[in-house]
Amino acid sequence: MKKNKNLLEIPNINSKDAKLKKLIYEVDDSLFNKEYYSKEKFEHLCVCSGGTTSSCAKNGFTTLDLRKNHSKIHIDRESNLVTIGGGVIMGDLVNHLQKHNRSFPIGLSKLPGAGYILTGGVSPLSRAYGLAIDNIESIKGFLGNGKFISLKKNQINPEEQLIWEAIKGAAPFFSIITEIELKTIQSNPIMVIEGFVNLNELSEIIQLSEEFPENISLQWIYAQKIYIYVVAELKNNLEDKRTEECLMPLYKFPALEKELHENFNKINFFPKELNLYELNSNNHSEVISLLGEDLKNDIPIFIKCLNELMDNKPNDSCYIASQQLGCKTKKLNHGSSFFIHRKSTWKPWIYASWKKNDLQEKEVALDWIYKSWSKLKRFYPNIHLAQLHNHLNSHEEELNLAFGNRVNELKTLKNIFDPQGILPPL
Ligand SMILES: Cc1cc2nc3c(=O)[nH]c(=O)nc-3n(C[C@H](O)[C@H](O)[C@H](O)COP(=O)(O)OP(=O)(O)OC[C@H]3O[C@@H](n4cnc5c(N)ncnc54)[C@H](O)[C@@H]3O)c2cc1C
């Protein structure tokens, strides 16, 4: 059988099914040649790192797959800084760090690639170690006009300052990042409390979590049923006593179980075996990520709203989930970035999928996402642009709610450094 050279083997089914114009692996001059792209189709170059989003490959578009030539990982044992290629996935990063007793605040899945880091990167450990972007020490790559860039924290000259800030949160719009140097963290034991809860219990647990110290975070998913993870990093006897006091109220919930993990690298969140939602390779999907602050007295109305949204979900694969940030992610001493909603303490996301060729089901599923988003806006008014949606009608609103008054700076950067619109459009 003839092998299809333009097949992109990746986790996101929408992108995996796309009929590519061309699949390339090299970042060279021809890449930045406008002849490649057709204006009528608003065609641009798609970039693939982990391949977990619907924007890394599209019908009739060219994809640059960074996984082949930009997948090296190297840790400097003296500084404990790790250098990764732009095509490295987070699972490979933590597996490498594991050998050196180090870790990195990756998200809830090991599948995402550098896109996780460049779009912000919210981890169960972010409350203690900041967002993934807060841990970037240096980057190398190319701007959309083909110019090579190499930037290092604390050595940024004034002309480079805006580029440096925008790389942290908005890189995909004007650059291709081929190398990222990151701070790593000491690998400590992690206590996880997890299990199914009902809505009343979720309400109580959210209330408790809004008082958690920085080493504890809550993440929950409401799919067929509600499943929660409370993640607590253990560091030393004194702090561990306080942690235990904070976790104590959770022990009364009958279905929750406690497990001590050797370290963060070894934890797998939301495994398939839990059957939380329908996983189907014949489905396509989209997801929208929101940002907002503590719910405080609004917890009861939020729970009521959540219940109504879940009552109206169009199929069993749809879900709403949330992860907790705050504490260190609120601090501005990491330097300015394009993750502007620093006050945020919750990042919920709304996921919907449909049978891949069923346009009617797609419309219903997207309609549910948009209606849910509109209802949740009063609690979570902002957007975390972890997925690019330039193929959806919501793109412009998402851009404005993600970058606020920095949207114009981003447009300026795009005009200067990607004047031909080679990279994904704003
Ligand atoms: C199962 C799952 C769990 C997740 N959990 C979390 C979580 O806990 N916290 C969180 O913050 N996010 C989470 N995400 C969201 C995820 O981090 C983002 O969607 C991220 O953008 C995916 O990156 P990727 O490299 O895998 O995707 P890709 O589809 O390969 O790339 C996504 C976009 O980023 C751009 N891009 C990727 N690499 C580069 C590069 N090197 N240079 C320039 N542009 C690039 C591409 O243009 C592309 O449009 C999760 C996603 C999934 C699927």
Mean pLDDT: 95
- What portion of residues belong to β-strands? 15-25%
Coarse structural class: alpha+beta
Specify Rg, calculated over alpha carbons: 21 Å
Question: Could you tell me which ligands this complex binds, including any ions or cofactors?
Answer: flavin-adenine dinucleotide
Low-confidence stretches: none
The CATH architecture assignment of the largest domain turns out to be: 3-Layer(aba) Sandwich
Strand/helix succession: HEEEEEHEHHEEHEEEHEEHEEHEEHEHH
Shape summary: globular
Report on this model:
This protein is α+β, with helices and mostly antiparallel strands and 426 residues long. It contains eleven helices and 18 strands. Helix 6 crosses helix 8 and helix 8 (299-311) runs antiparallel to helix 9. The longest helix is centred in the C-terminal third of the chain and has 18 residues, at 359-376. The radius of gyration is 21 Å and the shape is globular. The relative contact order is 0.14. Bound molecules: flavin-adenine dinucleotide. Flavin-adenine dinucleotide is lined by residues 47-53, 55-56, 66, 86, 107-109, 111-116, 118-122, 171-172, 175-177, 323, 386-388, 424.
